């Protein structure tokens, strides 16, 4: 009979949960570990490649990052690269594509030039690209375009990750750890978490597990579990769904556009889709939906149980809607989902990257795109756009929104692993951890 008494139990088999399982198995003296996943395999929701940008964010082409934030992101990305190198990049987890951030018009070009001066000392592979350079890197970006353009580009760097495969690799490596009892249960839904008799009792559709410490890494559902136990009551949730469009292969690598500082949503980008051969994918759009998982109607009641509308939530929503630019953006993104009109509307945005695109080139990517649970801080009455983690200090942690997305999986797992070993009085293998994941730091 399988052991159901664990040192640590992880709920959620996405990129965050599997990264933590790997680090606990590989770099601590914890012996009994368990991961529960409600679906039939790891990383089938937001960590699946069809539901995210497939991007390894390094801070070099993301204009919404300050230099300080970019360097933090760079360190997180380096951990992913080091890990994949340590296991030999099985199944094509990580890919090298050229990448650039495109500036269109004098104002954006000037912004990029200033950004290049600030960032270049920290990103040695970064290049400032003229129109002629852009024509060589991405011919279709410059084709049929008038007016000034410039770009910041990086050619020889890892830019793309299949996070579904990465999560699977974490699971394989965790199971390889010697002297460890690593239990993974799929198709297992957690019904209730209780603390009694100095342990957490986790009731599932397959029976009960007991653990000295629990980590919930289940996206928006993490807040659901937290609030059932009385934690995170200061948070509400604004689920933002992203959709994508396919075109024929018109880009060689990733082309990002400059973030609008007035909009708390990602600017669109285009890149080769690693899961669909011969296609370039453009997006994401940004649509507020009342569900915690895209295309899963069962997650609507879960959303309704955590949104808890009140004056603070109303103020945050009003602050968004009252801004004309944000209001128009939100309306446009609603129309991006409407058949017959969506491709006509999206074409204008996509042409900022590829001016020669035609309507016939665009194809809405059906059942592609996930949901990012953006937290609403009801105490501060504003959106919480960064990482959202609740550490109870009592042996249970809730991870809602890793930032910047899946890139931060190993860095977030490190923070949790240190919290866990401190709480349980166990050992974190510092030297071994640094030699594998922090080389070049």
Number of domains: 1
Decide which structural class fits the backbone. alpha+beta
Strand content: 25-35%
Q: What is the top-level CATH class?
A: Alpha Beta
Number of β-strand runs:
22
CATH fold name, please?
FAD/NAD(P)-binding domain
Number of helical stretches of at least 4 residues = 13
Describe the structure.
The protein is α+β, with helices and mostly antiparallel strands. The protein has a single domain, classed as FAD/NAD(P)-binding domain (3-Layer(bba) Sandwich). Helices cover 34% and strands 25% of the residues. The protein has 13 helices and 22 strands. The strands form four sheets. Strands 1, 2, 8, 9, 10, 11, 21 and 22 form an eight-stranded mixed β-sheet that branches. β1, α1 and β2 form a beta-alpha-beta unit. The longest helix has 21 residues. The chain is globular. 46% of the residues are buried. The mean pLDDT is 94.
Outline:
The protein is 34% helix and 25% strand. It has 441 residues and is of the alpha+beta class.
Lay out the secondary structure.
Layout: E1 5-11, H1 15-27, E2 32-36, H2 67-87, E3 94-96, E4 99-104, H3 106-119, E5 126-129, H4 131-137, H5 139-142, E6 149-154, E7 158-161, H6 163-176, E8 181-185, E9 190-196, E10 199-204, E11 207-217, H7 220-228, E12 235-241, E13 245-248, E14 254-257, E15 269-272, E16 279-283, E17 287-288, H8 299-307, H9 311-322, H10 324-335, H11 342-350, E18 363-364, E19 371-377, E20 382-384, E21 388-391, E22 396-401, H12 409-424, H13 430-437
Parallel strand pairs: 1-2, 1-11, 2-8, 4-14, 11-22
Antiparallel strand pairs: 3-7, 4-6, 5-6, 9-10, 10-11, 12-17, 12-19, 13-16, 13-18, 14-15, 15-16, 19-20, 21-22
Helix pairs in contact: 1-6, 1-12, 7-8
């Amino acid at each position: 009979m399988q052991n159901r008494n664990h040192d640590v139990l992880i709920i959620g088999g996405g990129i965050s949960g599997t990264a933590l399982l790997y680090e606990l198995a590989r770099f601590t003296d914890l012996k009994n570990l368990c991961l529960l996943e409600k679906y039939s395999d790891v990383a089938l929701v937001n960590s699946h490649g069809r539901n995210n940008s497939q991007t390894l964010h390094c801070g070099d082409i993301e204009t919404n990052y300050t230099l300080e934030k970019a360097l933090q992101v760079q360190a997180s990305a380096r951990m992913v690269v080091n890990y994949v190198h340590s296991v030999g990049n099985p199944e094509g987890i990580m890919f090298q594509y050229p990448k650039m951030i495109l500036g269109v018009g004098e104002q954006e070009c000037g912004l990029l030039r200033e950004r290049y001066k600030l960032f270049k000392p920290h990103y040695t592979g970064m290049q400032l690209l003229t129109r002629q350079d852009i024509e060589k890197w991405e011919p279709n970006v410059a084709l049929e375009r008038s007016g000034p353009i410039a770009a910041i580009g990086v050619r020889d760097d890892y830019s793309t990750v299949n996070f579904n495969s990465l999560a699977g690799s974490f699971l394989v490596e965790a199971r390889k750890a010697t002297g460890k009892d690593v239990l993974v249960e799929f198709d297992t839904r957690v019904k209730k978490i209780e603390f009694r008799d100095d342990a957490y009792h986790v009731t599932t559709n397959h029976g009960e597990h007991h653990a000295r410490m629990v980590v919930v890494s289940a996206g928006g559902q993490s807040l659901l579990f937290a609030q059932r136990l009385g934690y995170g009551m200061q948070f509400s949730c604004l689920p933002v769904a992203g959709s994508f469009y396919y075109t024929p292969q018109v880009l060689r690598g990733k082309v990002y556009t400059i973030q609008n500082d007035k909009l708390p949503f990602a600017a669109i980008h285009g890149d080769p889709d690693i899961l669909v051969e011969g296609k370039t994918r453009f997006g994401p759009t940004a649509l507020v939906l009342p569900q915690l998982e895209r295309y899963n109607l069962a997650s609507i009641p879960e959303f309704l149980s955590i949104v808890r509308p009140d004056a603070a939530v109303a103020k945050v929503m009003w602050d968004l809607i009252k801004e004309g630019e944000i209001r128009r953006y939100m309306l446009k993104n609603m129309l991006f989902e409407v058949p017959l009109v969506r491709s006509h509307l999206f074409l204008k945005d996509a042409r900022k990257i590829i001016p020669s695109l035609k309507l016939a080139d665009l194809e809405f990517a059906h059942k592609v795109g996930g949901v990012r649970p953006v937290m609403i801080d009801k105490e501060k009455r504003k959106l919480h756009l960064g990482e959202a983690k609740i550490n109870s200090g009592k042996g249970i942690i809730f991870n809602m929104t890793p930032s910047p997305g899946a890139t931060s999986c190993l860095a977030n797992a490190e923070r949790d692993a240190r919290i866990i070993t401190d709480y349980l009085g166990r050992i974190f293998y510092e030297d071994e951890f640094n030699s594998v994941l922090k080389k070049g730091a």
